[in-house]
Write a structure and sequence with these properties.
With about 900 residues, this protein is an alpha/beta fold. The protein is about 35% helix and about 20% strand. It is built from 31 helices and 32 strands. The protein has a nine-stranded mixed sheet, with helices on both faces. β8 (about 175-180), α3 and β9 (about 200-205) form a beta-alpha-beta unit. Mean pLDDT is about 85; it is low at about 1-5, about 265-270, about 385-390, about 620-625 and about 890-895.
């Protein structure tokens, strides 16, 4: 007990206790042949575990607060009540539960640290003393302010007589913090606490303990999916949804992150949970520990203690977010630096209490944090979205963080790297492949897990078959190769066979013999069967039937001889299907069965859709399939290509490699409508540029227009290089011009200024001089001007400097492009209005933020559409003011 002069508020720490036995061993040096050698030794030691270990750590934290740390208890307390330490014990002592672990030295920063090599299990005592022996807490009182319980399901939860007096139904502690093991949210203790103290209850558990409690939570795909899985289970699964009615529940992902679900009172219908994810953007669950081998005892103890410290500092309003950040950081330090070994007593290991307490006092926040979208509510909202950014219910942290100004974000990615520009967005890295797109991350991680599992088994009779789809040049082979090589560096040998170039199926055995040769040589063949979905002898998907036997049997027949293929990875790369859902979709059910499509798909173990650097193509109705984040993928690819091919263009700035590139050149690389050959075109443009001896990527370094035409629309690319920068005084001047054109049109239709906008009275509130216009309406004009280059680019138009001998450009009346531009302008206007809180109403009311034109284009009356058409017609006049004109890009002029 910690004694103080002022009357303190007591704190109780108790629960299930174990005796943790550490079997530390240092093996013989390599090359030692004798059965006994003095360099090898093994020693067993013990320490108090479970609730006793947690109490030891919190005792140090409480002492730090008492001796002057910030907080309500500084200088006065609190009193800590914890289980009394036991007398010396031995492994056979039946008064206690005994946990065993094998410890070994692991390398860390050129030294050896002690981590768990193997958890050997628990010897659970059948005697009641194993639970009751630690009951006697000196001065147990119902007036304890903070109660901390360690419920490891070793008996404490089922014995009410052992619970602290402060947990009684009529007690009123400020907080009860429970560290719990599976099965979670079960037992007499939980039912009692939940019923009588739910509004002051904080639960801490691990995601693995949740998974062992009849819940379904994905593993290792993406942070978004895992977080939404946990949020859904906590809110809707009757086995664990009582957790969501606590003040807070924290779910740990060990050293990779944590999820916090907090109850608030903001919802009129009842308590509404707030959910936050704390995560390492570079790894997913389990990956960090794979990078730092070994295991550890005490991750959840660190996390629980981090939250407990915040309860001590500000019990009225604890900063649980900071407690989680500190607890996760302490868990990582515990893993990296291992348990402490007493130098005076070789082999005696112990939890580094002082070191972890010091780490818990650090107030930095090293983990990214994001609010998790409720999966049910987000699905409802996204079903009504108007921008088609992603499938309904598809939440991404990237989209939450960066919904606007993606072009400027992409520019920062190229200049400074994704790690800096997107520092709060999950990233998937596989060798030299980096992606921030959730769909690609999940697909690649699923393939990564498949390949890892396949390679972990030496005796494999069948090849692992994977399909990969994407547009030409999207990087299909690169992505899969990086995944495989990241798992087995130096052991993978890539083989590529383009089926469209084979004379016929009779050449497939020759290709498979090459695969066998690689296998027999002790390497792992990664075999790409390119354009496997092309026709053969005018039969759609005619190649499929010839791969069914090798995929199923792991062998192929040549003449009368059957040859085993051996361990290998088959990658079927689509040539005509750009997505898995397109594969065989144009065939009738009968034709699909005849082509063996179902048989082929049944033999696949996974697939990936590669998105590539180009935006999606238009659908059958020439409507855009929205994917605004292609520009981020393009930026990541461009920086990677420049790092490999023009490393001299980067310079160090505060420890970061910053690219020197002309703003116009960068704008063209990011803004060009389409690269003819995908990634290969980006790389070709870089290689074709005159960069040798240059310290920056300048406009003069670019190839000539006819050379650019090999890979892009040269005119469009160069127009982007020279494109006007719509900002500052020029932006204001063009915005003023935009407003002037708007007013001229209204006046020509007989409108005049009025305090309200009224169609019948022909009055409009915006018919004012620019200087008298409200600032929000000035900004609306600026936004419309900023969007002009973007709208033009979407339908194949570019801005170029005007020549004096050229007539001014005009959009033909009734032209499809005019109509499409008007629709795009309406969507832009509607998006900005909704973002500002406007809603549709039969009559426009600016005071109430209601507007009659806030309708989808297809539902908009023609007289309202005409207003958007008029604005589009005015674009050439507005640009002429700055010396620019509009032309159709070369690719669009040629119709392709």
């Amino acid at each position: 007990m910690i004694r103080t002069q002022a009357p303190p508020a007591p704190m109780v720490v108790t629960g299930d206790v174990t005796i943790d036995w550490h079997i530390a061993t240092r093996r013989q040096r390599k090359g030692t042949q004798t059965a006994w050698n003095q360099t090898a030794w093994t020693r067993a030691c013990w320490q108090r575990g479970g609730a006793a270990l947690l109490a030891d750590l919190i005792e140090v934290l409480a002492e730090d607060v008492r001796q002057g740390g910030p907080g309500e208890y500084a200088g006065t307390g609190p009193v800590l009540q914890k289980p009394a330490p036991p007398s010396p014990v031995h492994p056979g002592d039946r008064r206690f539960h005994h946990a065993y672990a094998l410890w070994s030295p692991f390398p860390h920063q050129k030294q050896a640290v002690w981590r768990v090599e193997q958890h050997l299990g628990l010897d659970r005592s059948p005697e009641a003393e194993a639970v009751a022996g630690w009951k006697h807490i000196a001065g147990d009182t119902a007036r304890a302010d903070i109660v901390i319980l360690d419920d490891a399901n070793l008996g404490f939860r089922d014995h009410p007589e052992l619970w602290p007096a402060a947990t009684a139904a009529d007690a009123s502690p400020s907080w009860i913090l429970v560290k719990m093991a599976q099965p979670v949210a079960e037992g007499q203790l939980w039912d009692h606490l939940h019923e009588h103290h739910g509004d002051r209850l904080i639960g801490v558990t691990t995601v693995d303990d949740l998974r062992l409690t009849e819940v379904h939570i994905s593993r290792g795909l993406s942070w978004e999916r895992t977080a939404q899985d946990v949020a859904w289970e906590l809110g809707h699964n009757p086995r664990v949804n009582s957790l969501s009615r606590c003040a807070h529940v924290v779910v740990s992902f060990d050293t990779a992150g944590a999820l916090l679900l907090s109850r608030t009172d903001s919802d009129e219908a009842g308590p509404a949970p707030n959910c936050f994810l704390f995560f390492d953007l570079h790894v997913i669950e389990g990956m960090w520990k794979q990078q730092h081998p070994g295991q550890m005892i005490g991750y959840t103890t660190c996390l629980t203690a981090g939250i407990a410290r915040q309860l001590l500092l500000t019990p009225a309003k604890p900063d649980v977010h900071q407690g989680i950040q500190s607890g996760l950081r302490a868990a990582r330090r515990l893993h990296l630096e291992g348990y402490a070994m007493d130098p005076a007593e070789k082999g005696h290991l112990s939890f580094p209490v002082s070191r972890i307490a010091q780490e818990l006092a650090d107030t930095t926040a090293p983990f990214a944090a994001v609010r998790v979208r409720d999966p049910v509510q987000f699905l409802r909202e996204s079903e009504h979205h108007d921008d088609d950014r992603a499938p309904a219910g598809w939440w991404t942290i990237l989209e939450d963080r960066y919904r606007d100004n993606l072009e400027s974000v992409a520019e920062r990615v190229v200049r400074r790297g994704a790690e800096i520009a997107l520092r709060d967005v999950p990233q998937g890295r596989f060798g030299h492949l980096l992606t921030v797109d959730r769909r690609e991350i999940e697909s690649f991680r699923a393939i990564h897990a498949l390949v890892a599992e396949y390679l972990s088994k030496e005796r494999q009779r069948r090849p692992l078959s994977i399909a990969v789809f994407g547009a030409p040049g999207s990087g299909k082979s690169f992505g899969i190769t990086q995944v495989a090589q990241s798992l087995t560096p130096g052991r993978v040998e890539v083989l590529e066979f383009n089926l469209s170039q084979l004379e016929g199926p009779h050449e497939i055995p020759d290709a498979l013999h090459r695969v066998r040769d690689v296998t027999l040589g002790g390497r792992i063949p990664l075999v790409f069967w390119d354009e496997f979905d092309t026709s053969l002898d005018d039969r759609p998907l005619g190649w499929l039937r010839y791969f069914l036997a090798p995929m199923q049997d792991g062998a192929f027949r040549q003449g009368q001889v059957v040859h085993p293929i051996g361990r290998s990875i088959f990658v079927f790369a689509g040539g005509t299907s750009h997505r898995m859902e397109d594969f065989g979709a144009d065939l009738s059910p009968e034709a699909s069965r005849a082509a063996k499509v179902p048989d082929f798909i049944s033999r696949l173990k996974g697939y990936v859709d590669i998105l590539g650097p180009n935006p999606p193509e238009l659908d059958a109705d020439r409507r855009e399939i929205s994917d605004p984040y292609y520009v981020i993928r393009r930026a990541i690819l461009l920086r990677s290509i420049l790092e490999r091919n023009a490393a001299h263009l980067f310079e160090e700035d505060d420890g970061q490699a910053v690219l020197n590139i002309d703003p116009g050149v960068l704008r063209a690389f990011l803004g060009i409508k389409r690269y003819r050959h995908g990634i290969r075109s980006i790389e070709s443009l870089v290689v074709m540029s005159q960069l040798s001896g240059k310290s920056a990527y300048q406009r003069s370094s670019l190839p000539a227009e006819d050379q650019l035409n090999l890979h892009v629309d040269g005119q469009e690319f160069l127009s982007l290089v020279q494109q006007i920068q719509l900002e500052g005084d020029l932006l204001n001047s063009l915005a003023q011009r935009h407003h002037q054109v708007f007013c001229e049109r209204l006046e020509a239709e007989g409108y005049k200024w009025g305090p309200t906008t009224d169609e019948e009275q022909r009055t409009h509130t915006s018919l004012l001089p620019w200087a008298e216009l409200p600032e929000d309406e000035k900004e609306q004009n600026r936004a419309a001007v900023r969007d002009i280059p973007h709208k033009l680019a979407q339908i194949g138009y570019v801005m170029i400097p005007a020549r004096s001998n050229e007539p001014p450009f005009e959009f033909p009346e009734g032209d499809e492009d005019l109509e499409r531009l008007a629709e795009l302008e309406h969507r832009r206007w509607m998006h900005s209005k909704r973002k500002a809180g406007w809603r549709h109403a039969p009559q426009t009311d600016k005071q109430q933020k209601r507007h009659e034109a806030l309708l989808p284009w297809d539902e908009l009356p023609d007289e309202q559409k005409e207003k958007d058409r008029a604005l589009v017609r005015s674009i050439p006049r507005i640009l002429a003011y700055a010396g620019y004109t509009v032309v159709k890009s070369g690719e669009e002029r040629l119709g392709g």
